[in-house]
């Protein structure tokens, strides 16, 4: 039997993928994003890693997941469907609960640690 290994983000060799927010979700800009998923549970209900994005704004729908975020760098504004805004900067941590819908705006290029729990 092999021992379960700790996932060390600082020494990860997980591949990094890059993309641009899909045009149908973009509200401003065409932000390039990078993702390094460093952990996925067997059923993929729990994911964790780092994510980065350039400046831009797009719609988000958290109908099927919760997300914990810790901003390593940058400045963002999340706005819900009613227009209520929450602002976060380097060093801030927050949770986006399942059911949140609104927009994600990157004011200054951002990098975050994330933990996602998929409920469906």
From TrEMBL:
Location of the (S)-ureidoglycine aminohydrolase cupin domain: 47-114
Lineage: superkingdom: Bacteria
Pfam families: Cupin_3
Coiled coil feature spans: none
Protein name: Cupin domain-containing protein
Originating organism: Halomonas salifodinae
